[in-house]
TrEMBL record:
Name the UniProt record assigns to this protein: Salicylyl-CoA 5-hydroxylase
Lineage of origin: Bacteria, Bacillati, Actinomycetota, Actinomycetes, Kitasatosporales
NCBIfam families per record: PRK08255.1 (NF006101)
A Pfam family matched in the record: Oxidored_FMN
SUPFAM superfamilies the UniProt entry points to: FAD/NAD(P)-binding domain, FMN-linked oxidoreductases
InterPro entries in UniProt: Aldolase_TIM, FAD-bd, FAD/NAD-bd_sf, OxRdtase_FMN_N, YqjM-like
Length: 825
């Protein structure tokens, strides 16, 4: 790999947030190992002889400078030059937060830099959340911060000591020229990367601008905790994010830190953020920099103790999320904000850039071929970055919609904020600060020693003893729509497993409304008798466990093969005709359904009514109307599948008409004391489809007609959907509907752990959690969740024949006693 390397570097995102690791230790790693967050620790000694490389660095941000220093340290024969258009003491922003995992990687890669950082860091454990004049404090979070200028100085000094040439106040040559002259160009030139823009066709960038304005300021005193303060003004909600990055000089070991009042009194980063419409209403659009600084100081005078704020070429901006399809093009590769950004509220910009540099340096050492090295770098970093970006988006959207949560009790509001990204959870927070977590639980109403998931919940005349729902799962195992022994064992086992509510699969209201030949139904007396056998078993063997039925009609997604024979693929023979809101096939090659006439709509409504009557006589405790996933009623709701021009198509109100008619007809025959829920797809994950705004209105409409709760799913409406998968990825839709309508919700979608369930319920994002795959993996998931949490209360009951298994079995011993005496040789 002879030749040269060029590195382009620039500003990273503003890190202000969670840095979320428990206090204590710095996560020491063996050289060459991965950090707990997926970062790399390169071997300090090269594993093989390397040809000397010339290195050029364009820009002087932390990621590029650190990459240059690492590459020079790993091979002193490299000739490395840094181009930076600003002066060495120019910097924008104030403080930088790094996690202990990142510091562990730095410690092993370059102890000199690590030691210098250690001498400068301000460390603290607490987060203060001020909400309507009440401050709640949570401890044990383990933050470390320093001034951005000081960080750059440390990296400048390290580069100089290693022999890296730094050229300040100098524009770098064009990237195309560098690509010809050097073996590798590493572009880390920030969120506004000119390099990325020049090679957009190669990298496939996507830049999304978000809904809040923010400004990065500083205060000349040190907060004693990470502080979130909420201001409810006449113009709307504003928030302050603040944290210390310099303590008073008397608190520090003497260093080469530049003199200045902020270093005598300490200093803090202060970010003020608000929705665009609030920003405009408050008049910030007309204010100059100093005017904005003074206005912010006045609004947050309590948090600042009446002290002023200062700026540094500070300007209001909107955050941009950067994603690239590819990170490498020939001998050009992206690093840091040029490749990806993650919202500042989880403190990730500089951290990600530094970890990129560590991984890139390691991959260049491990692979003699440049293309392989760059491929390995992207393969290693992309999943870590994607996970961080998912967490950052959740955090960003939480702050964008902050006004949604203002009426929550103070402890719950604080807990909701702390767990907003889903990286900090109920169990994790309990480890950090048990006292705070117990205060949240008491305020929520958890009896002592009772996890939130094992608190009861009432829907109409039905009280569920816990918040766990076995989600509807199609089994495709019925014969002529009749549930058999398989269904008895399947649903019976889940009921014995401790869930508060066990739901059937979608039970079809007619033979023509089946998805596959193996789908269960409730359109004959024989089917109703078979279901009664199952409900009787649940009520007799597991008293206190509820069983619910989900009624639906396949619509245009019917007449297909069993899932394991080809999901959504049409039958090769034995097809039945399909009907739908509009004559649009689910995907090419599938049958085109007939558009339903008025008379057919009446027939189908009566089929739902008859099935509901049979369900009531069959002993079900709850009925759910399936209006999701592209089946018949869902097909009326989505503008992508409803192209009707009559009274049942067009506006959302008209698209709602038939599903509401069905709901009313079913509610009329369903016993008054038994609850009815509705499952909806809150988004189609496709342009032009159902949106989050639509979902709120759909939920409101069903609530007005008597729905007791909404089961909030997403997607599966159109074949070309593009879901944004991730842990608990559908829960934000349930969260929004719950807070904007006041209707109880059931959250679904990649909720896989009891810790997730506790977190979502305690934060007030949902009332019930429905889990599918975890119950396929473990029919006794809820019982085991209780055992693992040491809970033995009334929220979950072990069947008497199973009580001997209520404690985890012993495993092979892994903690053999150590020798009491060791003799030297």
């Amino acid at each position: 790999m002879a030749g040269a390397i060029a590195v382009a570097a620039g500003d990273a995102a503003v890190p202000t947030g969670e840095g979320s690791v428990p206090a204590g230790g710095h996560g020491r790693q063996a050289a060459g190992a991965r950090t707990p967050e997926g970062g790399r620790v390169p071997e300090v000694a090269a594993t093989a002889a390397r040809t000397a490389l010339r290195v050029a660095v364009i820009g002087g941000g932390p990621g590029g400078l650190y990459a240059a220093a690492l590459l020079k340290r790993l091979d002193p024969a490299r000739e490395i030059t840094v181009w930076e258009r600003n002066a060495p003491d120019d910097t924008f922003g104030f403080g930088v937060v790094l996690s202990d995992e990142t510091l562990g990687g730095i410690e092993h890669a370059d102890p000199v830099v690590y030691t210098a950082l250690q001498d400068e860091f301000v460390r603290w454990d607490d987060i203060d959340i001020v909400h309507r004049g009440v401050r709640r404090t949570s401890g044990g979070h383990g933050f470390a911060a320093l001034g951005r200028r000081r960080l750059l100085e440390i990296l400048h000094e390290r580069c100089h000591s290693l022999g890296v040439e730094l050229r300040f106040r100098t524009e770098a040559p064009p990237v195309a020229e560098l690509m010809r002259a050097y073996d590798l160009v590493v572009a880390a030139d920030g969120v506004h990367s000119l390099t990325r823009g020049a090679y957009a066709e190669a990298f496939g960038p996507s830049v999304e601008e978000h809904r809040c304005r923010y400004i990065w300021l500083a205060a000349d005193f040190a907060f004693d905790a990470f502080r979130f303060e909420i201001a409810e003004t006449e113009h709307g909600v504003m928030q302050l994010h603040g944290y210390p990055y310099s303590r008073p000089s008397s608190d520090h070991h003497p260093s080469t830190r530049p003199a200045g009042p902020q270093n005598q009194c300490g200093a803090s980063t202060v970010i003020v953020e608000m929705r665009e419409e609030v920003w405009r209403a408050a008049g910030f659009a007309e204010l100059d920099e100093q005017g904005s600084v003074e206005r912010c100081a006045k609004i947050f005078a309590d948090a600042l103790g009446g002290r002023p704020l200062r700026s540094n070429k500070s300007a209001w901006t909107t955050f941009r999320t950067v994603v690239n399809d590819r990170w490498a093009h020939g001998n050009l590769v992206l690093l840091g904000d040029a490749a990806h950004t993650a919202h500042f509220s989880i403190g990730s910009g500089t951290k990600l850039a530094v970890e990129d540099a560590l991984a890139l340096a390691a991959c260049l050492e491990e692979h003699a071929d440049l293309a392989q090295a760059l491929g390995a770098y992207e393969e290693e970093r992309r999943p870590v970055v994607a996970s961080t970006q998912r967490a950052a988006r959740a955090s960003l959207e939480w702050f964008e919609n902050l006004d949604r949560y203002l009426d929550q009790p103070s402890h719950q509001f604080a807990f909701n904020l702390l767990t907003r990204s889903r990286r900090v959870t109920h169990d994790n927070l309990r480890l950090r600060d048990a006292h705070f977590t117990e205060s949240v639980e008491r305020e929520f109403g958890c009896p002592s020693g009772t996890p939130p998931m094992f608190t009861p919940f009432r829907l109409r005349g039905l009280t569920l003893r816990n918040r766990v729902v076995v989600s509807p799962m199609d089994m495709y195992s019925a014969v002529d729509g009749v549930p058999g022994d398989f269904h008895l064992v399947h649903l019976g086992a889940r009921a014995l497993g401790g869930a508060g509510l066990v739901m059937t699969e979608m039970v079809c209201v007619s033979a023509e409304g089946r998805i596959t030949p193996g789908c269960a139904g409730l359109y004959t007396g024989r089917q109703a008798e078979a279901w009664r056998r199952i409900t009787d078993f649940v009520h007799a063997q597991v008293p206190g466990t509820a069983i619910g039925v989900q009624l639906g009609h396949s619509g245009r997604k019917g007449s297909t093969k069993l899932m394991w024979e080809g999901m959504d693929e049409p039958l090769e023979d034995g097809n039945w005709p399909l009907v739908a809101a509009s004559p649009i096939p689910y995907k090419p090659g599938n049958q085109t359904p007939r558009e339903l006439s008025r008379a057919q709509l009446t027939d189908i409504r009566e089929q739902f009514t008859a099935a509901a009557w049979r369900a009531a006589r069959g002993g079900f405790d709850l009925l759910e109307l399936h209006c999701a996933h592209g089946y018949l009623l869902s097909g009326f709701l989505s503008p992508l599948t409803n192209r009707r021009t009559d009274a049942y198509g067009g506006s959302l109100a008209r698209r709602l008409r038939f599903p509401l008619e069905v709901f009313d007809a079913v509610r009329a025959v369903w016993p008054e004391e038994r609850p009815m829920t509705v499952r909806i797809s809150a988004t189609d994950w496709a342009d032009g489809g159902t949106t989050g705004d639509d979902a709120v209105e759909i939920a409101r409409a069903f609530a007005a007609h008597g729905a007791d709760a909404v089961d909030v799913s997403t997607g599966q409406v159109v074949a070309d959907e593009r879901p944004e998968y991730g842990r608990s990825y559908q829960t934000p839709y349930a969260d929004r509907i719950r807070h904007e309508t006041g209707l109880p919700v059931i959250a679904v979608g990649a909720i896989s752990s009891w810790d997730d369930v506790n977190s979502l319920i305690l934060a007030g994002r949902t009332d019930l959690c429905a889990l599918a795959r975890p119950h396929l993996y473990d029919p006794h998931w809820t019982l085991h969740a209780a055992a693992e949490q040491g809970y033995e209360g009334p929220g979950v009951v072990w069947p008497m024949p199973y009580r001997a298994g209520s404690r985890r079995p012993q495993t092979g011993r892994t903690d053999a006693p150590k020798p009491r005496l060791t003799l030297g040789t």
